[in-house]
Amino acid sequence: MPPQLLPASAAAFAPRASSVNVVLGSKIEPWLTQTLKRINRVKRPLNSVPQHQRCLTETLSSTNAIWTLASLMLPKYPDSELRTDSNTIVEAIPSYEFIFLEAYIVHVDMVLRNEVAFKLTPDTIEALIEHHKDVFLIDAKAASYDWPEKEQHAKKLHDGFVQAINKYVFRTHVSALEGLEEEGVGELLCGRSEEVKNSIMGLLNKPLLPPPPKIVDVIRQPPLLPSSPIGAIWSQTIHSPGVPTPVDSWRVLPSSPAVTSTSVDSNTPIWSSMTMHEIELPSPIPSYSQPYSSAGMFYSSPMVTSPIPALPLPSMLAAHCGINMGYGGFGWDRYQEYATTM
């Protein structure tokens, strides 16, 4: 893209230059020649590029060379002070006014960008600044809720508009010079006025917004490193999934039914004196753990059990066995009595 060349007179708060910067190409367009012949009362020779450039420069540099870019109908007073009437025409006449956006040409380029640049006149800039301060800003503050720094934000919004409207330069195609009239005055044609109107209204109607909520930084707990004391404490209580949790030796059930504990009566079943919370089943061993071994569960002293009682020998039982020995009080000596009754 070619560089955007603008003279110093197009800068913000810069005064109007005594001469307009005009750059023409090596070939003059026929429409420019016809326009210059139409606006000049005195016949001037237009047979070369320097003659066209001299004529156009003198015409646009005149103090009367003011262009009307567009017109805006804006309210004179804030909404709270506007007159209300059933007749819209009667209501609009005293309450609204027209502000004509007038400008002068600061740059004509028919070589690089084929454009013409307009800058608003000081009177137009002053009228827009007063409207923004006395009307728009009051309506904006009334339409928004109150917060501690509302006045400061309103002042900042107005200062931003002052800067923006002084920097505003309307740039359009060089064919806009077809609207040139005598003494350098002119009017934008082909719908270019709508572009100016939309641009100015966009600068005027910037809303007054409250500041965004402050973001509170969440302080997160730093991760525990293996070298920290807290991490060491937790590391001591964590058991490997391959090693079963150690249990007390007295809570382990005997592996043989013949072996009984010393604290359980021989006539009472072993399961009746044991509550549910005393029965602890080992947790299931993962498939990737080592083969199960009951030796790893006994790390304390060996379990104390009562000695196995001595069983009587067959020879000892033979001395007591006889015909008088029976079941339930019925001996073999009365077998004949039972047999005859049956």
UniProtKB/TrEMBL annotation:
<protein>
    <submittedName>
        <fullName>Uncharacterized protein</fullName>
    </submittedName>
</protein>
